[in-house]
Protein 1
Amino acid sequence: MPDLDAVVQEIAAEMAQRSDRGEVAHYIPELARVDPGQFGIAVVGTDGAAAVAGDGDLPFSIQSISKVFTLTLALGMIGDRLWRRVGREPSGNPFNSIVQLERERGVPRNPFINAGAIAVTDVIVSGHQPRESLGEILRFMQFLSRDATVTIDAAVAASEKRTGFRNTALANYMRSFGVTENPVDFTLGVYFHHCAIAMSCRQLATAGLFLAHGGRDPETGFSVVSAERARRINALMLTCGHYDGSGEFAYRVGLPGKSGVGGGILAVAPGRASIAVWAPGLDAAGNSHLGRIALERLARRMGWSIFG
Amino acid sequence: MPDLDAVVQEIAAEMAQRSDRGEVAHYIPELARVDPGQFGIAVVGTDGAAAVAGDGDLPFSIQSISKVFTLTLALGMIGDRLWRRVGREPSGNPFNSIVQLERERGVPRNPFINAGAIAVTDVIVSGHQPRESLGEILRFMQFLSRDATVTIDAAVAASEKRTGFRNTALANYMRSFGVTENPVDFTLGVYFHHCAIAMSCRQLATAGLFLAHGGRDPETGFSVVSAERARRINALMLTCGHYDGSGEFAYRVGLPGKSGVGGGILAVAPGRASIAVWAPGLDAAGNSHLGRIALERLARRMGWSIFG
Amino acid sequence: MPDLDAVVQEIAAEMAQRSDRGEVAHYIPELARVDPGQFGIAVVGTDGAAAVAGDGDLPFSIQSISKVFTLTLALGMIGDRLWRRVGREPSGNPFNSIVQLERERGVPRNPFINAGAIAVTDVIVSGHQPRESLGEILRFMQFLSRDATVTIDAAVAASEKRTGFRNTALANYMRSFGVTENPVDFTLGVYFHHCAIAMSCRQLATAGLFLAHGGRDPETGFSVVSAERARRINALMLTCGHYDGSGEFAYRVGLPGKSGVGGGILAVAPGRASIAVWAPGLDAAGNSHLGRIALERLARRMGWSIFG
Amino acid sequence: MPDLDAVVQEIAAEMAQRSDRGEVAHYIPELARVDPGQFGIAVVGTDGAAAVAGDGDLPFSIQSISKVFTLTLALGMIGDRLWRRVGREPSGNPFNSIVQLERERGVPRNPFINAGAIAVTDVIVSGHQPRESLGEILRFMQFLSRDATVTIDAAVAASEKRTGFRNTALANYMRSFGVTENPVDFTLGVYFHHCAIAMSCRQLATAGLFLAHGGRDPETGFSVVSAERARRINALMLTCGHYDGSGEFAYRVGLPGKSGVGGGILAVAPGRASIAVWAPGLDAAGNSHLGRIALERLARRMGWSIFG
């Protein structure tokens, strides 16, 4: 087994030298200002080991990575009834496509495309004020990352709200079919805010550790979800976690993962480690360009692919 | 670790008692006549162990499962140039959809939907007579299954050819974009015939063993593909192997797999075993109903999920 | 030439006896309460003749028929620049489809599908308060119908606003592409209200008279639009005026027309007459069932088809 | 009333001077060789007047214009039963799209897109040898154009057959749903050949005269179809005759018309004249660029728009 810390440092050094960095997301004004030269990585093992390199302690906008955690919360609230409102299949379309919704009567294909994550957020919002729901999500993130300083970047949330016409379209569209039930403004408000949570790679990798360890925190033994549910969330990340680049990510990296347009990716090596990388530049499918390459190298050098 | 043989017998017994069996594929007349009461299973371990139960030694039409092996062959012939003609993403559409082809200029989304498999077959056909190409595919299957008696069911092939208007449409459509290059009749002839290969669960599980063992036959050490290519084929099976039910299969079973409308499924537990199940009745997405349930139980009882 | 008044009375009598009446629109609660047994018709000739029968003097919700007049207004404001924001082709999709918008970057196919009419309304709203824009539209309708009592049914407008999630989706979707420019709430507010204008067949037929008379009011000679623009609006009504039933309407009736989900249809016999019919029950494409049949009979008996 | 002959000469002169000529269809090799500098026009009045200018006596490949006549023939054979196999709505898609066929179970939207015309041809083929069906179509064209020298350009037909993969896809696709019934090769053979009929503008305008005169030849009084059927064919030409440019043609020209990728357009001024124009260069929607402009001018100068 290669030395994890050495591999992580090595990869950070390699990434620092690359000039191909993709394009920073420009449709959210606040994100468009981020320096594309940054790169962070953090690996937290189920054995307690941790390796952090580059900008791995700098907070960034986790964006859609939050969808893994809101899915976890919503499943905890209503269990498999969630699947009446959202499917479990890859979409075959870009992350913000509305075409599939028309064909399938407002039911989004999976919880990781925008429409699906809005439907999941709507479940969390049910019966609560937006402020309460948001508080619950934030506390969950602080708890999982063992860090009470995790917070929401209000400027990013406001920026998304101001420019989120397409997400507003998706939300209203689903509401027209009764797939969501709460006032569209409530649900979208919570959605825009949990996407604007800011975390470092170290915090994020820690937060995802339960997915690599049968649903439990390996340090405290606290059970976040059952082992079966952890496996299933991993399966959904693998098939749907990278929008219309999910097949490519599985093919190249071979680990369950979820990307965000902030340039972060959370990946899970079951039984071994939780990994977070961050590089703001995106590829054509909206996933972190260097983030994916870094994970590909890490998985190969550590022999962590789930595919053999 | 539970006893493999006991688990396999147990599952076969459980399946024999179920009355929910799905519907036998009716669009290929020869397949419509198959008795839906049959069920077979075979598990071949990378350690040489084998467990077979039910109708696990009865040959059935492997249909689309052949696409795993034609993909392997075509990659051996032209390597990554194959990916100029076919993508690596889940389709988000039924197995025989032509919609995506129009949107993406004739390039099928992945090698496991019908259009993609026809494009892969076209690569194998290039520069050869159909008869030679077909011979090569058949010999490859005999070699991998260590059984020279594996053969093609000519009646099934003829039945598909007579009624294969939709596949003929797909093939001509891709040809119009130059994605395929050979005479449409040549390519389709080979395609219909390799889908009509008949194998038992035991033969099929043996043939897939290299995918569970880093690309090599564990008995002889013969290398079929590199370890990396084996991993990548597994990744493709996981994200795309069950048409528009691929997400569901990953979610429930947690193993790479490829189904066929004959009711067979080949699944791979990396590092552990190659598995073949067969139950002719299909679910709405065209995958074996009991086959999937049997694999779900096997993976859970043996602890073989790749997701933790 | 048959006697117009006799033909109109005859058709009203025939329609009164039919039991096939289609289904009243149920997605707008206020409209769902309308009595499907009603039928009205009014024909106003370019020669000043008028024939009214049945409930031809009862006001009903003109709904999408208002789109003919908002199009006329918007063309008067910005002329052919309007066509940068909306197309002139039949959509091949239901009236509230969003699929086409995704494929064509937010530009609706024509001004008569919901998305297109919202884009047209957005032009009228530009630079004004919603209340002013709405006032302008209403005054235009009063002027054209020569009746200052024409008004907006506030209950219907409120009902649409409360339940108009799908239109809200369309509006936000176009806004995300910059096809519309004003606050979505402003534009939708005006849209919901002009769709809620209530008019009788007599008022509506009078309002449409300029389209049958080279763009001018035949009584006063006042020019509403140029003769060419009148022809072009008629052409758009013929190809796009009945959503995905436009081909059928042209085939059966042979006159330019625009339907609304309130059960009204405005039709134009160029050089001869403006016609309004009203029967609340709709067919599968969302067009008045008896309204279409009545117009088919009128066109045939009067020899008014534009197709020979 | 302006002098028809003067107007026609004038338009031919204007067209000769234009340098914007569109692009000659390149996907049929034989058509790609045609000189884009040619322009022909012929107007045949219901009163017997005829005006021909430019290359109006040169034969060209009528291509899809033949679909008007095969529709007429098929309606004569099986009447309104034809509409079980093909719709009457504009498609909202390019002429050779297959997307709509998947959504609507193999039933093409109208008889003038490629799929619809193949379905219509399949009706004509039923119960006959391809050679007989083709003979019938050709004799019909000779009869209508009062010219027994009209013939099929075998080189064009062969060229289409060799490269017609997309039409072959459409035909097989419909066959898979049972929308067509005859051997795909038979139907396609006849289809490719009737599209390859070569006619001059003068011959074509003569052939279409019955559509401008209530279904009858004004000279002989011979009734080709009923007046109602003539109107209905005109309506279909208006809504569907120019593929995804039908709305535009109605908007600009205001006459029923049918275009072909050979650069011809047949247009009908009901009660007045039948018109054929030919200019090989096409616009983006596949319709003759100068042909449309010439018709727009003719309709305006003669006051022939059906819209007022």
Note: Chain D has two domains: 4-63+198-224+233-302, 66-196.
Protein 2
Amino acid sequence: MALWEKNLRRVTPYVPGEQPKEQNIIKLNTNENPYGPAPEVSRILSCFDADSLRKYPDPEASLLVKQLSATYGVPEESIFVGVGSDDVLAMSFLTFFAGEGDILFPDVTYSFYDVWARMIGISYKTIPLHEDFTWAPEDYEVPNQGIVLANPNAPTGLMAPLSDIRKVLEKNPGSVVIVDEAYVDFGGESTLPLIQEYDNLLIVRTFSKSRSLAGSRIGFAFGSRQLIKALSDVKFSFNSYTMDSVTLQVGAASLRDQDYFQDCVQKIITTREESKKRFSDMGFSFPDSSTNFLLVTHKDMDIPALYEYLRDKHIYVRHFNAPRLNDYLRVTIGLPEEMDQLFAAISQYMKG
Amino acid sequence: MALWEKNLRRVTPYVPGEQPKEQNIIKLNTNENPYGPAPEVSRILSCFDADSLRKYPDPEASLLVKQLSATYGVPEESIFVGVGSDDVLAMSFLTFFAGEGDILFPDVTYSFYDVWARMIGISYKTIPLHEDFTWAPEDYEVPNQGIVLANPNAPTGLMAPLSDIRKVLEKNPGSVVIVDEAYVDFGGESTLPLIQEYDNLLIVRTFSKSRSLAGSRIGFAFGSRQLIKALSDVKFSFNSYTMDSVTLQVGAASLRDQDYFQDCVQKIITTREESKKRFSDMGFSFPDSSTNFLLVTHKDMDIPALYEYLRDKHIYVRHFNAPRLNDYLRVTIGLPEEMDQLFAAISQYMKG
């Protein structure tokens, strides 16, 4: 070991879903949107003034923040933007959990939460989801310095009612409660109305799923003015210019076309509901998803083997080698014809 | 104070140079390049397949890393990329300075170093530059867990010889030594040849200055395989996908046109050398800059007043309200005609 290695931060990095470089695969493994971004995104890129890139971008990201403000009816000072929701969440962990005590999140949830906690040195306690992957507000009535809830939860897909989030907020005025709404656009109920009532509520969102812009890296957060000020102060202590000039325009263009956005989301919801029926018909079971994915299992099937089988057929879904998830596959909702191919492959597998 | 505020990270954010929104100003305050990026950047943007943005970018940023490898003759596993050099530096502070003891950097240098140290909770000691803003390797023979040296230094513009960096590395095998080469392309001597000899040397670079891509947010680092592995592990514990798909292509396109790059750099060096002469002729003095800026002072002039005067004339330069710098202005080298206007305004000011 080199001498300088004694000063290293010890981490176990998050492992993202595979991003295979081959073409001609059916990619249902990272919850990407099967439809492209709003048509204006293409126009923005083709007309972009490349010369303007010699200058720094607006550190306040005003173009994007103003458009978010107009789209969601939230004041600009209640909005924060970052390099994907992972950046927003990492900054939030840095900002809000610098006190004493554990932060709390479910045992089955986005697997980056514990990575951030360990990287930053925040102690944490996982709260087991119930047998059916639901949770109750009372589960979070233990001492804590912060709570993180994905709603709808991933990878379960389950949505908790707003009344449950409200109960958690009521009981924890001394903690920032982060609600990660990465998937809320696919039929979930947003906690957004509650930011006016609770100054300790931070809602985190992304352009990666419902807005078909995973490749652009745009995340955002809503919260009280005090919360957003604290988050911005930490962000400006880390990197003044996180959002590049092209991305700011791409994000704003996407927000301006709400009809296209709603249309894509609706198509995915339709395909999801059809897929639920097809999985059920084949004997699979799953939590009732409000997202763009399904977490499926089958009592008579070797799920890791099915995963490998599909992969050999160039169909990528996600399998988590994790407690309670080993017998599940997370399947992103793709195009109807991609789902047809998936179900055809599963049928073949079942026929042996 | 709200109850949850007890858990907040306390920070004093870095204040970036002003990014005024008005047009028709002469902007010599944030060391931007007066020439646009390589022509292929424009072509890349106009042909970009917007539909591909629905997918996540390559988390390994291979396109850009491979092009950096080819351009600089450095193996891919010795290269790290991030969202501007600020992101690379912030990640490096997180990664390499998690041990005991102070980190060291000069008292007059890039004013983000102390911001990162305080934000992360790293104790630090500043080493005073000599009266003439130079430093000596012996200054860094004090116990430390890390050393950060900008070379050329900012905002002084002064270049230390490679032999001095080598001496610091020799004496500090237990510390990672970060050499911030943001400005090295404007006539400095890079520490790059030393990465094969010293596994504790990290060299940080940026596309924001010499490559005219401040608006794209691209920074990179060179170091030993072990150093880059440690840095990547922390990065992947923070945000898997930092570099968006457009930026990866923009960065690679810029690197492919080395002739254009060299030409722009040479024009700036020529303008800088002319500007040195003109400042001297007007009675200004300055450290001998190897960068795209000059740190000027004048023994008979009220420098903060000159700053305000220029600002009123829509000429933005940078004044730091900081010890030892109050009587200096940092002036970015702009287009020849912009410098003409600057010198005309200073002449007017001197005539009173």
Note: Chain B is about 35% helix and 15% strand.
